[in-house]
Known about the structure:
Elements: E1 2-3, H1 9-15, E2 19-23, H2 27-40, E3 44-49, H3 50-53, H4 57-68, E4 76-83, H5 86-94, E5 99-102, H6 109-124, E6 129-134, H7 158-168, E7 172-175, H8 192-201, E8 206-208, H9 216-224, E9 227-232, H10 234-250, H11 258-279
Parallel strand pairs: 1-4, 2-3, 2-9, 3-4, 4-5, 5-6, 6-7, 7-8, 8-9
Amino acid sequence: xxxxxxxxxxxxxxxxxxxxxxxxxxxxxxxxxxxxxxxxxxxxxxxxxxxxxxxxxxxxxxxxxxxxxxxxxxxxxxxxxxxxxxxxxxxxxxxxxxxxxxxxxxxxxxxxxxxxxxxxxxxxxxxxxxxxxxxxxxxxxxxxxxxxxxxxxxxxxxxxxxxxxxxxxxxxxxxxxxxxxxxxxxxxxxxxxxxxxxxxxxxxxxxxxxxxxxxxxxxxxxxxxxxxxxxxxxxxxxxxxxxxxxxxxxxxxxxxxxxxxxxxxxxxxxxxxxxxxxxxxxxxxxxxxx
Length: 290
């Protein structure tokens, strides 16, 4: 069933677990992630990047999720990830996304507030939740190239959080505490003291980007101290590549059936998703009234 961030994150915050948020592009990913969430009885967030919504992508992804959502008993959020312009946000809302993220993390503080507030006004008028970002998480983009300012993450200032949330009315806040996007070159060291200070003053649930590759003990510490939505993409891509390699090794005919061809990919991704759901403490968290 389709829900918004506001129907899954407050419970996660109260009960100290995080909802897994997985970027997805095609049926193989969407079906595998949803089937695994149902198996684990976990709320789930399916995310899409603007890159994957180009052309007819937005209709394929949103149409598929809307078509199958009622077949699942777990709460499903359809989320637009890392949008930085109103046009794609409007299109996502028109196509039934239940939450959107406006990424103004590289803008000056006041401009980030102004543009985030405009997104909130647009989205809330349609019952859509909004995530914004304060601070900047650097790293690699989906093409493997550096983001502008890569390697120069700007950690979230706890003193700015109260004003930002109050002036924007966002529903969730992505914070920068030492993670980065993509595959790590060296293990990160999360600033948990900073996270504690942010959680103490934030009126909204907190989000951690760059969850792929972050050591499990640090992930758990972040969740214990306020992270309620945890984004995963690079780990999914690594898992699918491993499955693809296994698939190539085991094929015994030149024209394999699609299910046989894709099964190792699905199995590898499903294992990753299940492991992350359990690590985040989100398994068996479907509310009794759902």
